[in-house]
């Protein structure tokens, strides 16, 4: 009591006030435009609601979910999304590892090279989509020209309009933008490997593959875990590339969950159903990352 | 290294470089060609008669300038707000321990998982209610929060590295808590701030989904949504024009990157390797 009187307010209370002051701007922002909307969207998924009629929502229980799950569009979109995510993340990881191993070697100009390979990563996604649409363009696109010149293709292909190839086109564009980031992160991890460890391994007679398998990989485990999880989540959410390059077509072959829920809520204006898709999607993502964490911590 | 190995290594590296850099070159090269040169087969690898015509045409289009200024406005405001909020929060999480701190941090990071579209559905109705639709303020708030979680984690990593004894010394000298923050901590973590700022600017400049849903007045649109509405015809694309727009849309980010890529990479890897 005497101390409090002497110092005015006690140090602990001052700390508390200070802490609340500095944490609140970020937390308020997050609450206002992330936490509350997410809760609200889960809530909305139980109502019959459309964008044109927002004022009198009608509670309809699980009907939205029932519709979403029985119509087949959701399952189809889920399959497409999983195919896309698995392909892009695994290709990206293998190539990223290869590129970072190459950039980790000693050679002249590697510093410059390390920064210029990052360029695709800063290109805005919409520009990435447009650029690759131009390259994949059927009549005058570079891709068809080059592939025909080296004898892989016999005639021009309509990449983005071909049901079997549209997803490939999107994956190439996504890979172009995401590979530099993956490689840079892996490279940063590699550079933190103590040189003595590699030297000791070499003295013990380990070859390149053994060094990679028993020193580099275990050392990179945390980095790998972080970057692949980030890549999985980012690609699960990927919207602009699909929307601009294919808009979900042809024949719904590129309708991912992101495209489906955008179409349902903002084109068909069925908000309740869109929210139900979003909620299911969120649950799936949470399950995936829980399994993922478990798999990687058990080892 | 044997000669064979060396050749393999170099050719792999060259293949990677072609894949990563050629499309970028192709974008610039296309933007400098006229209509005839674009639709020539075999393609003109180097623009034989480079012309600034496409750029001149683009800069005469009023709406393009409007989208551009809107994007700059939104990106700078987002970056500013996000830097302040994440600096404060990151410092709090780094230096103070309190009940539920770890849960709080995990919760913040897990927001990165939320599918933006399902969030947008309700954000749209909330914005509608508070008259934030079709305002830059609303857009800035939405993009700021999209960037915040990662920024808080990134900057917290930087603060964790700064020795606490410096702060104690300042405290003995009679420095207030905010004084410590502004006079000691902030100047010391400049690389961290640049990383956070750059990350947010990139994210904001790249945003497509928020701006296309929260804004539907043409004069308020930002670059990505403006481009998608204005330049994407159903069938015929004016590719020279589209590539010119693309180059100009990439320029600010490219300059920013060239100036602070060192900090950018340091920040990302510090946050990512630890997180």
Automatic annotation (TrEMBL), chain A:
CDD domains: TM_PBP2
A single GO BP: transmembrane transport
Record membrane topology: Multi-pass membrane protein
A single Gene Ontology CC term: plasma membrane
Family matches, as InterPro entries: MetI-like (IPR000515), MetI-like_sf (IPR035906)
Pfam families the record matches: BPD_transp_1 (PF00528)
Transmembrane parts of this sequence: 17-39, 82-103, 115-135, 165-188, 223-245, 271-292
Keyword annotations of the record: Cell membrane, Membrane, Transmembrane, Transmembrane helix, Transport
Domain named ABC transmembrane type-1: residues: 78-292
Subcellular location: Cell membrane
The family this protein is said to belong to: Belongs to the binding-protein-dependent transport system permease family.
Protein name as catalogued: Sugar ABC transporter permease
UniProtKB/TrEMBL annotation, chain B:
Pfam families: BPD_transp_1
PROSITE patterns, A to Z: ABC_TM1
Annotated compartments: Cell membrane
InterPro entries hit by this protein: BP-dep_ABC_trans_perm, MetI-like, MetI-like_sf
Membrane topology according to the record: Multi-pass membrane protein
Transmembrane segments annotated in the record for this chain: 7-28, 74-93, 105-127, 139-159, 180-202, 239-259
UniProt entry keywords in alphabetical sequence: Cell membrane, Membrane, Transmembrane, Transmembrane helix, Transport
Annotated ranges, domain ABC transmembrane type-1: 68-260
CDD domains cross-referenced by the UniProt entry: TM_PBP2
GO cellular component, one term: plasma membrane
Any single GO BP term: transmembrane transport
Protein family: Belongs to the binding-protein-dependent transport system permease family.
Protein name, as recorded: Carbohydrate ABC transporter permease
Organism for this UniProt entry: Vallitalea pronyensis
């Amino acid at each position: 009591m005497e101390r409090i009187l002497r110092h005015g307010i006690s140090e602990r209370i001052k700390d508390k006030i200070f802490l609340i002051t500095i944490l609140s701007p970020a937390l308020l922002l997050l609450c206002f435009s992330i936490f509350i909307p997410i809760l609200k969207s889960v809530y909305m998924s139980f109502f019959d609601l459309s964008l044109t009629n927002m004022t009198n929502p009608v509670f309809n229980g699980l009907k939205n979910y029932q519709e979403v799950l029985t119509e087949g569009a959701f399952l189809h979109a889920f399959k497409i999304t999983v195919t896309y995510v698995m392909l892009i993340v695994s290709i990206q990881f293998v190539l990223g590892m290869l590129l970072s191993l190459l950039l980790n070697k000693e050679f002249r100009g590697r510093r410059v090279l390390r920064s210029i390979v990052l360029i695709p990563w800063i290109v805005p996604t919409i520009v990435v989509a447009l650029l690759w649409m131009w390259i994949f363009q059927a009549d005058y696109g570079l891709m068809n020209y080059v592939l025909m010149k080296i004898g892989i293709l016999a005639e021009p292909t309509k990449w983005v309009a071909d049901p079997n190839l549209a997803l490939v086109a999107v994956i190439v564009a996504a890979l172009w933008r995401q590979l530099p980031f993956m490689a840079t992160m892996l490279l940063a991890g590699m550079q933190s490997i103590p040189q003595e460890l590699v030297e000791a391994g070499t003295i013990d007679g380990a070859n390149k593959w053994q060094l990679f398998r028993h020193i580099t990989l275990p050392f990179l485990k945390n980095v790998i875990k972080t970057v692949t999880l980030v890549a999985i989540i980012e690609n699960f959410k990927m919207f602009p590339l699909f929307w601009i390059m294919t808009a979900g077509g042809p024949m719904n072959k590129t309708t991912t969950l992101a495209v489906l829920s955008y179409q349902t809520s903002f084109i068909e204006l069925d908000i309740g159903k869109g929210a139900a898709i979003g909620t299911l999607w969120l649950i799936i993502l949470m399950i995936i990352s829980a399994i993922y964490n478990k798999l990687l911590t058990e080892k | 290294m044997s000669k064979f190995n060396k050749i393999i290594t170099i050719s792999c590296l060259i293949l990677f470089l072609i894949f990563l850099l050629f499309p970028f070159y192709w974008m610039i090269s296309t933007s400098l060609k006229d209509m005839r040169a674009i639709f020539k087969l075999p393609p003109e690898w180097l623009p034989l008669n480079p012309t600034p015509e496409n750029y001149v045409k683009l800069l005469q289009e009023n709406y393009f300038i409007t989208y551009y200024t809107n994007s700059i406005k939104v990106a700078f405001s987002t970056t500013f707000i996000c830097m302040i909020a994440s600096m404060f929060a990151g410092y709090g999480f780094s230096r103070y321990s309190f009940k539920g701190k770890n849960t709080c941090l995990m919760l913040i990071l897990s927001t990165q998982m939320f599918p933006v579209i399902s969030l947008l559905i309700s954000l749209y109705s909330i914005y509608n209610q508070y008259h934030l639709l079709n305002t830059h303020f609303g857009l800035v708030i939405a993009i700021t929060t999209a960037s915040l979680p990662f920024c808080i984690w990134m900057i917290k990593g930087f603060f964790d590295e700064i020795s606490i004894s410096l702060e104690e010394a300042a405290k003995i000298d009679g420095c207030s808590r905010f004084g410590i923050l502004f006079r000691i901590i902030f100047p010391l973590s400049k690389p961290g701030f640049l990383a956070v700022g750059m990350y947010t600017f990139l994210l904001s400049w790249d945003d497509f989904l928020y701006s296309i849903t929260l804004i539907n007045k043409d004069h308020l649109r930002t670059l990505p949504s403006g481009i998608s509405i204005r330049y994407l015809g159903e069938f015929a694309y004016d590719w020279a024009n589209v590539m010119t727009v693309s180059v100009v849309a990439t320029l600010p980010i490219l300059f920013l990157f060239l100036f602070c890529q060192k900090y950018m990479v340091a920040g990302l890897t510090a946050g990512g390797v630890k997180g």
